[in-house]
Design brief:
Helix 3 packs across helix 10. The chain is globular. The chain is of the alpha/beta class. 30% of the residues lie in helices and 24% in strands. The chain has eleven helices and 20 strands. The relative contact order is 0.18. A five-stranded mixed sheet has the order 14-4-17-18-20, with helices on one face.
Length: 401
Amino acid sequence: LKPMLGKGDFLLNLSVDVSSPVLIEYCMQNGVHYLDTCIEPWHGMYTDGSLSLANRSNYGLREQALAIGKKYPKAATVVLTHGANPGLISHWVKQGMINIARDVSGGDVKIPKTREEWGRLAMKLGIKVIHCAERDTQVAEPRKQRNEFANTWSVDGFVSEGRQPAELGWGTHEKNFPPDGKRHDFGSDAAIYLARPGMGVKVRSWTPDEGSYHGFLITHGEAISIADYFTVRENGKAIYRPTCHYAYHPCDDAVLSNHEMGGKNWVAQPKYRIFMDEIFDGVDELGALLMGHAKGAYWYGSRPTIQQARKLAPFNSATSLQVVVGVLGGLIWALENPDRGMVEPDDMDYRRVLDIADPYLGDIVGKYSDWTPLKERGWLYNEDTDIDKSDPWQFKNFRVV
């Protein structure tokens, strides 16, 4: 890197299996601006069985990166994890909170300016759970073949993160700790992990078009950073934190691919295929689902069709365009704020990023729902031992067992 990158340059790290911490430290030492869409470890670290699950987690990778950032507080701006999710999802959370606050109060709302103020607003609204709720309905021809993993974005990336431990920001309202849950003995303590791969854990969630669905609890940076950002502490103790996690239903062929890989004990198929030109229909419905407030549940996000995506930017899919405009928004914000050191999406000006990204995101939608993870449960089988009726927003109720 040394002969290629110097002060004032900008490095976009969009690769898989390139060590983000090493690149980040080089950039912070040498005045190079930097942005990635996820934190990547050294090659093989995701599946290195000699490492503890805690050290293979996104929580562990994030703590490693943040420690580097603290060493260079006034360095050139380094943006961690800014694509669609992580990335845009953090800004949709904030816009969704402002929309809820306005609807509840019936008037103008003072926009928070600090992390503390944002946390206090979330606590005041009573938001208990935040999902990155995504349903990808894009379909392609030819369909997935036997012994092939097909997806609408990087198969390498999806398989890698899907085999990491399932992770979620752990809210202060939770009272049923998962039997396979584990806490970290280092860092912010904002999240926990499950001793199972994210591709093997399902959760209930909701989007406006799809309605209720089962999604995979894939680990993602936003599950940890959002939960950490909105934590409110008094005398050093967390008195408020929302539970936050991904609830991902990928395209149907990716679900079949995942099912096939699970049957091989998470050994990936020998063939990979990323759908792009083959896609002929469908939508990628991606947004923030905020739950537990006075109006129940509220989803805010983007749902471009494949036709809209190709009209806005030829040769893209709905999925790729959401990621690319997240990168674009983060890149422009970083150039406008060149000396902020290390930042996460939650630290950035949400409106500035969304103003850049919105024209490329198809339909921007905000919708309320009376859905809860207990809705229409128990009519076919008795689920009393699997649910907590005292509070619908317990993680126990979201998890599919």
